[in-house]
Amino acid sequence: MDGRTLRNELTKFKSSLMEVHAAGENNPNKMSELFVPIARKLLFGGYFEVSSGDKVVRRIFPYTVEFYYHEEEGQVKDYIVYHRNSDNPSKDPIEPFQINTFHTHLSGIDVTFEGKDEKGVFRASALIRAYQVINGETGIPSISGEDQPEMNPHSTYLYNDLFMGIDIENGIQVKWKNHEWAQEGHLYNGYRFNVCEYDEIKPSKKGEWVRHVKKTKKNHPKLTPEEMQDKKPWAFSRGVFTDLCELK
Length: 248
Description:
By secondary structure, the protein is an alpha+beta fold. It has one domain. It has helices spanning 6-23, 28-44, 158-163, and strands at residues 46-52, 55-71, 102-105, 108-112, 115-117, 120-135, 173-178, 188-192, 198-203, 209-213, 235-237, 245-247. Strands 1, 2, 3, 4, 5, 6, 7, 8, 11 and 12 form a 10-stranded antiparallel β-sheet that branches. Helix 1 packs antiparallel against helix 2 (28-44).
């Protein structure tokens, strides 16, 4: 191991972001470059250990991660982000999450690294889009996806693998373990799965603030008709799995 931890990589993001802001280079492609060290750490530099009492139940290795980043006052917007200020300006702003924590939501579980710099509050997190589960006792993969038996492509199933089937009287502990098991592995980069591009915002007839999606005549196979695929290159994977991470 080289001494780097996930917390180190998440913390360094803010200083790198400040340099990008100072140079006026903050754009989706530049942000993708800033995400690379965190992606490498999540995909090749450790795993989640699920334990109960003195027993390791499972080890969960991220396989595909998607980054979500939104500047409240800045130029880079990502309106699909769950944890951000309301589009209705009359509502109070939301405080940033503590760094290196879980954000649980309808689409799965994120690792957070939000914060604030001279440009204002930024929302930042990495969704565990796909993952591998290894049995803590046997070392054998315990969950299978349809196409790749070593990988689960369903981000919401992570809830099951973190918490289900464990004696709650013995307690459940989930901990990130830093372990550089394949730091030089190839990192695939592409677009986020089933994320459409957003356009203008305006009040609906009912007075609710609605963010409208951009339209296209060409349908994306994973989006509803007429929705345009978001082209931010913010997905990273250990392998090619185009339903999860559409390569650029």
